[in-house]
Specification:
Blueprint: H1 3-21, E1 30-35, H2 38-44, E2 52-56, E3 61-62
């Protein structure tokens, strides 16, 4: 398998993972965006600049994190 085929296989594998992991976001609508409250920052044990919270139409919240372990607030790139 050449490098391009390996990259394509990895892309397919990760796409399958993301579609499973984030299935609850499919079809949702972002209805508001706000900064995290100090209590939320404490809950995540984050310090410094507050993270962002995207409020969803079903009452859920989407909170970008630095990594899977939640080591700090994250950033979204809007393309």
């Amino acid at each position: 398998m050449n490098d391009k085929d390996k990259a394509t296989a990895e892309t397919a594998r990760m796409t399958k993972y993301y579609r499973t992991e984030y299935a609850s976001l499919i079809g949702r609508k972002i209805v508001d965006v706000r900064s995290m409250y100090p209590e939320e920052m404490e809950l995540f044990m984050w310090h410094g600049q507050p993270g962002s919270v995207l409020m969803l139409d079903d009452g859920g919240q989407f909170i970008p994190m630095r990594d899977e372990e939640g080591n700090g607030p994250g950033h979204l790139v809007i393309h």
